[in-house]
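Hi support team,

I've been running sequence recovery on a batch of backbones for a student project. Most finish fine, but this one hangs at about 90% for roughly twenty minutes before it completes. I'm not sure whether the input is malformed or the queue is just slow. I've pasted the structure tokens below so you can try to reproduce it. Let me know if you need the job ID as well.

Thanks,
M.K.
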């Protein structure tokens, strides 16, 4: 028998922000229901109310015809509701089995029944097609297996409702297929499945229905996705049509700015050499483990090179720390902005000024707050950062707006080369278009721009030239007109031959 879920007149406010306003819609069991909207539309707030982490100011949840009031995540789990977040809620130092049954371990007289625990865990994992040692530490497992453990954990609670928040953001194509197969099984069992993603192709691949939120309000629910086009869905999400999200146009390319010659270091299997010219956008594509992020960290000084040279404007630079790279005009927008790009418990103004603070201080330690406020205001306005105030904690901004703050931080520096690692990961289609516009503006101003992405359409869409990486080395350097999706993907796959790479 299928379950059902209704969000009824839900509203939620935070200081200076109306996150949800009178949101109502139904989700039927036996279907995968997409929750769509730009960053800041209210999706995360809705999931946190569903999980019991937040309580609504108004409205209620109705599960299988019964009104539910969750005062904690334990209440939600007890009612059979599980939310699988992008940042998985697992304890790395505990075993797989302990994570699966944490909070309801089989025990007798205070002692955990180890054999029973391991057998139960093995059975849950086998049902998902996973062969994992129940005794293995979760922290030692790859992200795809950890995600399956999170799903299995929900099933140990006999979850009737399972919500997925950007579940494929860190998975390879093979791992995505495995996840989709599991979701198909859950759908066939009649469970309520909510699916949040910014990847339109996934929505049409796995989802049956969709609800669109915008600015905290319910816009429309489509019970049959096959009856509407992607353009219609995007239009409902952003309130405007985005026919070509990339808006690529060629520009004048000048002299060589960045030259990398025979660089070696952790994560690379062979010396890497390439160059980027003024005004040029160089894309770097590769599958998971190709060495893309590792290469950028070597250029930025986050990891030490073991050989090779880096030159900026025909002048060799010695980069041992990020401060050396910044001084040389090389800056990085990192892949994991939450862990490496922002200080979540600090304000928008502080995050914007963290690098340029030395420019606004007297004697090196007396901070001139007025100058910092002026600088932050300038770039918040220039980049159209959506924030109620400069004092707002950056953790409360959407992913797209956090990315803009990181960009604003670097615009106060004398940039010669900017490195983007997954610049639009976890960002909605409308905010993506804005980020691409900023990338083009930087290139037009003469900045040498490097864009790393695991999304092939993105690399092909924004780049003038594309490097393909495979298993820790650069295997091809292709001009835009020669970089077809088929050729680039063939070169990136481990089965590609050296002959293909050189052709």
């Amino acid at each position: 028998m299928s379950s059902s879920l209704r969000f009824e007149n839900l509203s939620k406010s935070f200081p200076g922000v109306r996150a949800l306003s009178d949101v109502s819609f139904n989700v039927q069991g036996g279907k995968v229901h997409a929750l769509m909207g730009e960053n800041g539309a209210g999706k995360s707030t809705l999931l946190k109310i569903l999980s019991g982490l937040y309580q609504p100011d108004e409205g209620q949840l109705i599960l299988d015809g019964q009104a539910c009031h969750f005062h904690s995540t334990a209440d939600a789990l007890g009612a059979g509701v599980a939310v699988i977040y992008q940042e998985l809620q697992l304890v790395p130092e505990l075993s797989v089995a302990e994570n699966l049954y944490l909070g309801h371990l089989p025990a007798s007289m205070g002692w955990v029944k180890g054999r029973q625990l391991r057998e139960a865990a093995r059975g849950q994992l086998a049902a998902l097609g996973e062969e994992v040692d129940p005794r293995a530490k979760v922290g030692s497992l790859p992200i795809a297996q950890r995600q399956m453990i999170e799903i299995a954990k929900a099933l140990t609670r006999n979850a009737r409702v399972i919500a997925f928040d950007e579940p494929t953001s860190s998975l390879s194509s093979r791992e995505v297929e495995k996840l989709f197969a599991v979701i198909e099984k859950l759908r066939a069992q009649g469970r309520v499945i909510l699916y949040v993603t910014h990847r339109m192709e996934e929505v049409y691949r796995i989802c049956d229905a969709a609800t669109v939120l915008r600015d905290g309000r319910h816009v429309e629910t489509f019970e049959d996705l096959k009856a509407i086009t992607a353009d219609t869905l995007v239009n409902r999400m952003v309130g405007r049509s985005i026919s070509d999200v990339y808006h690529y146009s060629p520009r004048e390319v000048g002299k060589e700015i960045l030259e990398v010659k025979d660089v070696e270091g952790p994560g690379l299997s062979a010396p890497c050499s390439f160059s980027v010219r003024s005004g040029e956008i160089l894309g770097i594509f590769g599958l998971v483990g190709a060495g893309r992020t590792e290469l950028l960290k070597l250029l930025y000084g986050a990891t030490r090179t073991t050989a090779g040279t880096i030159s900026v404007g025909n002048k060799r630079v010695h980069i041992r720390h990020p401060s050396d790279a910044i001084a040389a005009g090389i800056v990085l927008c990192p892949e994991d902005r939450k862990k490496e790009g922002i200080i979540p418990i600090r304000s928008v103004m502080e995050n914007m000024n963290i690098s340029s603070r030395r420019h606004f201080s007297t004697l090196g330690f007396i901070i001139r707050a007025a100058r910092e406020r002026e600088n932050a205001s300038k770039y918040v306005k220039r980049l159209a950062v959506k924030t109620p105030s400069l004092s707002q904690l950056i953790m409360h901004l959407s992913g797209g707006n956090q990315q803009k703050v990181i960009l604003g931080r670097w615009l106060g520096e004398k940039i010669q080369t900017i490195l983007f690692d997954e610049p639009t990961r976890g960002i909605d289609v409308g905010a993506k278009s804005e980020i691409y516009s900023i990338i083009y503006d930087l290139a037009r101003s003469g900045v040498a721009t490097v864009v790393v992405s695991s999304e092939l359409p993105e690399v092909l869409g924004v780049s003038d030239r594309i490097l393909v990486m495979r298993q820790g080395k650069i295997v091809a350097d292709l001009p835009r007109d020669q970089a077809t999706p088929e050729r680039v993907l063939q070169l990136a796959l481990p089965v590609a031959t050296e002959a293909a790479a050189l052709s």
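--
Follow-up from support: It reproduced on our side and the slowdown came from queue contention, not your input. The chain has a mean pLDDT of 87. No action needed from you.
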